[in-house]
Amino acid sequence: DTAVSQTPKYLVTQMGNDKSIKCEQNLGHDTMYWYKQDSKKFLKIMFSYNNKELIINETVPNRFSPKSPDKAHLNLHINSLELGDSAVYFCASSQIQPGNTIYFGEGSWLTVV
Amino acid sequence: SQQGEEDPQALSIQEGENATMNCSYKTSINNLQWYRQNSGRGLVHLILIRSNEREKHSGRLRVTLDTSKKSSSLLITASRAADTASYFCATDAGNTPLVFGKGTRLSVIA
């Protein structure tokens, strides 16, 4: 009964590869997010989608491309992976109203070697 | 830009003691939330306090908000080893998404 599920949980890949992380939420929320948490635990928002439409795109390299086939899914595709992309990527969702609780997935640990 | 800043960065206490973590922010907010992250896991919502509220309780948690000082505190009373985790504050201001701080790493020693 996982509310926000993301796969894979662990991903080790070589520089230059392209990889995707999938995310699904079964909470009926309108808004989904991708956050990146670096080695110092700093959590930074990357993207926010509302009903499949991009509403926030923070300063993120265009190698990162989110795709939302429907409002329950928000996948993250990363092209030409670099060493600095190594981090934990969290998918999350919430109702659209500001101030609502955000529900996080368990994270995807990406290591680029 | 980063909004919330937790203080201290790390805190180590004995089981049974109270743990206090602080959060300062820079701009006006609508709401402030506290989240908990266990090692290797996602963040879990703990409590939300609105800008017109000054104090809120939930079980062993007590949150205060001082909008004049742009600060909040999270108090965990009678701490347990299972409270060991990182704690983050997050703020929103209208239509902006939640912005998280760097967190406080709490270690509760049995």
Description:
The complex is a heterodimer of chains A (113) and B (110). Chain A is mainly β and 113 residues long. Chain A contains no helices and eleven strands. In chain A, 33% of the residues are buried. In chain A, strands 2, 4, 5, 6, 9, 10 and 11 form a seven-stranded mixed sheet that branches. In chain A, a hairpin with a 5-residue loop joins strand 4 (31-37) and strand 5 (43-50). The mean pLDDT of chain A is 91. In chain B, strands 2, 4, 5, 9, 10 and 11 form a six-stranded mixed sheet that branches. The radius of gyration of chain B is 13 Å and the shape is globular. Helices cover 0% and strands 55% of the residues of chain B. Chain B contains no helices and eleven strands. With 110 residues, chain B is an all-beta fold. The chains are: A mainly beta (113), B mainly beta (110). The A-B interface holds A 4, 33, 35, 40-45, 48, 56, 90, 92, 98-99, 101-107 and B 2, 30-31, 33, 35, 37, 40-45, 48, 50, 86, 88, 90, 92-100, 102-103, 105.
Short overview:
The complex is a heterodimer of chains A (113) and B (110). Chain A is an all-beta fold and 113 residues long.
